[in-house]
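Why run this: before we spend reagent on co-expression, it is cheaper to look at a predicted model of the complex and decide which construct boundaries make sense. The entries below are exactly what would go into the expression plan.
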Amino acid sequence: MKTTPILRDLVDQVINEFQITDFAKATIREVKAIAATVEKLSGMEFIKMEMGVPGLPPSAIGVEAEIQALQHGIASLYPDINGLPELKKEASRFIKAFINVDVSSEGCVPVTGSMQGTFASFLTCSQCNPQKDTILFIDPGFPVQKQQLVVMGQKYETFDVYHYRGEKLRDKLESYLKKGNISAIIYSNPNNPSWVCLKEEELRIIGALATQYDVIVLEDLAYFAMDFRQDLGKPFQPPYQPTVAHYTDYYILLISGSKAFSYAGQRIGVSCISDRLYHRKYDGLTQRYGGGTFGSVFIHRVLYALSSGTSHSAQYALAAMLKAACDGKYHFLDEVKVYGERARRLKEIFLRHDFYLVYDNDLGEPIADGFYFTIGYPGMTSGELAKELMYYGVSAISLVTTGSDQQGLRACTSFIQDHQYALLDERMAAFAQEHPIQASGKV
Amino acid sequence: MKTTPILRDLVDQVINEFQITDFAKATIREVKAIAATVEKLSGMEFIKMEMGVPGLPPSAIGVEAEIQALQHGIASLYPDINGLPELKKEASRFIKAFINVDVSSEGCVPVTGSMQGTFASFLTCSQCNPQKDTILFIDPGFPVQKQQLVVMGQKYETFDVYHYRGEKLRDKLESYLKKGNISAIIYSNPNNPSWVCLKEEELRIIGALATQYDVIVLEDLAYFAMDFRQDLGKPFQPPYQPTVAHYTDYYILLISGSKAFSYAGQRIGVSCISDRLYHRKYDGLTQRYGGGTFGSVFIHRVLYALSSGTSHSAQYALAAMLKAACDGKYHFLDEVKVYGERARRLKEIFLRHDFYLVYDNDLGEPIADGFYFTIGYPGMTSGELAKELMYYGVSAISLVTTGSDQQGLRACTSFIQDHQYALLDERMAAFAQEHPIQASGKV
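The model came back. C-alpha cells follow.
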C-alpha cells in the first residue's frame, strides 16, 4: 500500500479518539472536528466539503438595513409577534415575484431561521389531528429535521426518492398516505444533499395526493431558486421556482435567509402559510388551545412559546433584501452562483478520476450544479469512501446520515477555495491510482 | 351613576366586540387591543399598565457592539451552537460578579430570549425521567410559561405563594414534591407579577427540598437585581442578587437581556446551567438520544433543534453589556431605576384613593418598588376592578391569569409617562368618589 497524502495511522488514531466505530454514521460535526484535528497534527491542508454553511459574505443590503434599524433604537422593542409588517408584506411580494404564488402577508411569518420554522411546522401539524401522528420525509434530507422530531417525541417515516422519480412517485407516496397516519410531507427543493430538483410532474403528484389524503405539505426552500440550469432570478418573470403550491391548497413554504442571502448568522427566515391553511380550524388545535385557526395557533401559541418572535433588527434586514430583490435592484442569485461554478469544476475533477455522481439526473436531465452534489466510487460503501478520502485530505459526510439508501457522500461546495482545485486534482489522481477499478467493480 | 371619564357604553361595546365574557380572563394582548381601540374611538388618553415590556431606550453599549459585529461580516456565519465564546465567558463572570455564584462558561448558553431558555429547560427537564412528568410553579407567574407547557403537551401544578411565605413554604412545597412526579420547580425572583422577592430563608427551603427530592430548580431572573431596596449593582461586592444556587446543585439561572438591559427586541438571553447539572447523565436522556449529559443534550439536541442558536450580532451585544457591567463601567441598574421611582409614585396615588397593595410585603418588609406592583380595591373582584378601571382610562391585567388566587390587578410601570401621574390622580379621585368603601367592604 502506497503512502497517502496524510498518514493512515494518524487519521485512524484521531478517528479512534472520537470513538467512532462506523465512519458512515459520523455526524457533520464529528467529521468537521476530525478533519480539523488531523489538519492541525499533520500540517496538511484539508479540502473541506462536510459543512453545509454559506462561505460568502452576507448581503450588504441586509447588513445596512440591520445597522440602520439598530441605530433607530429598535433593540429595546419586542417585535410584533405576527412579524414586522414590512417584512410580512415583502415576503408575500417575494413569493409572488419568484414563485408566482399568492400568499397573503398575514401568513408570512418571520422565524428564528428555517430551523425554527420547521420545528413550529412539525409541532403544529402534529397537533391538528390525533390520528395523524407521523411526518413523512421524501428523502434524502437534512438530518437535523429528524432530530427535531426526536426532541419533540413525534414519529416519522421516510423513503429514498432515488428509485421513485416521476410517475413512480405516485404509488410509493400513496402507499404511506393511505394508512391515514401522516399529518405532513416534507422535502427540500433543490434537495439537500442530493441536489435533485423535483419536476412539475412530481410536484403535481405530491400536491394531488396531499389534497386527496388531507395532508399538509412542508416545502423546504432553503436553497431557494439555486437550480442554476435556468435563471430563476428575474422578479415577476418566468421561469419561476417550482412549487407544490400550484397543486394543493394546504402548504407551508419555508424560506431561509441563510443560503440565498448568505445570512445564516442572524437566524432569520420566513415560514409562509397558505391562505387556506392559515384560516382552517382543526379539531386537535381547538381542543388543545380552546380555539384558533392553524395560522393563529402557529403564531400566537407555538412561535410565541418558542421564542416570542425573532431578532427585531434581522427582520429589517430580511425585509430590505426581499424588497430589493422584488424591485429588481438586488440580483441575489448572482452572489451565490459561484457555488454552481464550484460544483461544476469539482464534479469534473471527481468524474475524471473514476468517481460517479450518485444522484445524477432529474428525469433524464443532468442534475444542476449547486450547493451540494453526491459522489460515489465503484465498489466502495459510504463509510469506506468517507474514511478513505480522509487519508487524502478530503472530508465529506456519508449519505447514510441523510436518509439515502445509496452508497456515497455528500459534498458541499461552500468552503472551496480557488487554489484547492489543483490540490484536489492531484490528490484524486493519486486516489484513483491507488484504487484501480475492476471490470466487475463498478456498482 | 355619574359619568366616567370614558363612556361606559363605548367601553362595553368594544369589550363585547372582542367576545370577552369574563374580563378577569382577558389576556394581556386583548386588554392592550381593547385599550387601544377605546382610546382611538374616544380620543381619551389611556394610562397603560397591562404590558410588561421595557419602555426605555436600549443599552447603548449593546447597540454599538452589535453594529460593530455586523460591520465585521458576522451576519453570514452560523454562530457556534455552544454560543459565542466571549459571551459564555462574560456570562459566567457576570454571575460571579452579581450573584456570587460559580457557573462554568461551558454551561452559560445563549438563547433566543429567556422564552426559548424556559422552553428548552422545560423540555429537557421533562425528558430526564419518565416518572417525573410535571413542572411545579411557585405562583403567581408569567402566564406564557404555562402556555409553553400546553404547546409541548407537558403537565404542571401550581400554588399561590401568597399564604406560604417563610417557613410555611416548606410543608406546602413538600406536599407536591413527595408525590414524586415533579421534574422541576420554577419561579421568578423578583416576581412577575407580584414583585415579591423571595428571602434567603425561602430560597434555602426551596434548595434543600429540591436536593432531597432530586428536582431541578429553574430560577427565572428576568428582572435581574431590580429589587431596588438595596444596591445589587456593584460587581464583585455584596449585596448580591439572592439565588437558590447557594442551596442546591441542580439549577438553571435564566438571565434575560430584555428588562435589565432594555434589549427585548433582539431576543437575547443566557440560560446558565449549574456545573453539576451540566455534566449529569439522566436515563431518560440516554434512552432518547443515545447518550449525552444534561448540558450537551440541552445545547446540541434541544437548542440546536429549536433554532440552531440565536442571532450572532445579538450575542456580541450581550457579551459587551455583561463585560461592561462586570468591569464596573456600565451601571445597568441606574438606567432601569426609573421603574422603581414610577412604582413609588403610582402606588402612592392608588393608596391615597383607597386602593391597597395585594402582595404588599416580604416577610414583614414592605415590598420593593419595581417593574410591577399589584393593586386591589375593597369589595371588588379582579374582573370587576379591571373592567371598571377601563371606564377611567386605566388598563391592567387581572391577577387571575397569573396563577394568583387573590383579587386584584397587575400594574406595570414601564409605559408611564411623566404627565400621567396628575391624570391618574384625578381619575382615581373620581373613581374613589364613585366607589365609596363601606365599613364592611374592606376585603
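The two ends of chain A are 23 Å apart (CA to CA). Chain A touches chain B through 58 residues (CB under 8 Å). Bring this page to Monday's planning discussion.
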